[in-house]
Amino acid sequence: MIHVAQRRFFILVEGIAFREVARRVHSQVNAMDWMDQYWIGPIRKRWDEAHWSTTHWAKVVMGSACGIGVLASLISLACSSGLRSSPSSFMARADIQPTSSASAVNGTATFTEEDGEVTVVVNVRNAFPSGSAGLRGLHIHEEGKCGATKSDNGAVTPAGAAGGHWNPTRAPHGYPDQAAHHLGDLGNIEIKPDGTGTLIFKTREFHVREGANSVLGRAIVFHQLADDGVSQPLGNAGVRAGCGVIIRDY
Question: How far is CA 108 from the centre of its chain?
Fold first, then answer.
């Protein structure tokens, strides 16, 4: 007969070990719930029983062996199904706000990455001047700041703190479908006569997840004029009328 203290020690080790295994695959197969109900629970229930016979121990050992086999099968199934413990999609957002009292533009920008492709959706309203339809430049800028800056001669640049276009490859400015362009070049958003506009843009050139070429911590800027796609380095898009910092949303 195994000593009671030894029995309890072995039960504790077994419970902790298999709970840890279950925790690591919980997101794929809900293994912890299964083990709590059918495995760890019964072991815990027997914890305070006064005596276990050799037959009882044999049953526990055999049950554990069977449990290991079942769990191994579940893990294999999860892996073969392509399930991952890390997120498969990543999201970020920016709230676009006016950069000065001369602007009333506001809106949102969302960035969703799935399987390496990023979908950018920008919605704006109150684009100025009111009632003036047309194209307006839209870019991602280097710094995640929207404050104004002032030059030595006193000239104020709304959202000047956002810096220049996001351009880690030091490419010339251009439209996003051109061979040479900044990573931050989103082209133009079309504004309707009611002052609203929507842009949907897809790319694999940058990411939402953290790491190289991540859009996180940068700023999206709405310009007063159209981006001509030619003028360097900013496309002659005019005043920075709206700005929002891109933050993680996952």
Answer: 16
Note the pLDDT tens digit of each residue in 140-158: 999 999 999 999 899 999 9
Find the length of the chain.
250
Domains observed in the chain: 4-80 (no CATH), 89-248 (2.60.40.200)
Strands (E) in the chain, as ranges, are: 89-98, 106-114, 117-125, 134-141, 149-150, 156-157, 185-191, 197-203, 219-223, 240-245, 247-248
Nearest residue to 191 (alpha-carbon basis) of 227, 243, 145: 227
Residues 6+ apart with CB under 8 A from 196: 123, 124, 125, 127
Q: Where are the beta strands (DSSP E) in 37-169?
A: 89-98, 106-114, 117-125, 134-141, 149-150, 156-157
Contact in structure between 208 and 217 (CB atoms under 8 Å): no
Q: Are the C-beta atoms of 190 and 208 separated by less than 8 Å?
A: no
Residue 163 burial class via C-beta count within 10 angstroms: exposed 0-12, middle 13-18, buried 19 and up:
middle
- Integer Cα distance of 230 and 232 in angstroms: 6
CA–CA dist 19, 12 (Å, integer): 11
For residue 35, the model assigns a pLDDT of: 56
Average pLDDT of 165-189? 93
pTM of the predicted model as reported, rounded to 2 decimal places: 0.65
Query: Which of the four pLDDT bands, split at 50, 70 and 90, describes residue 234?
Result: confident
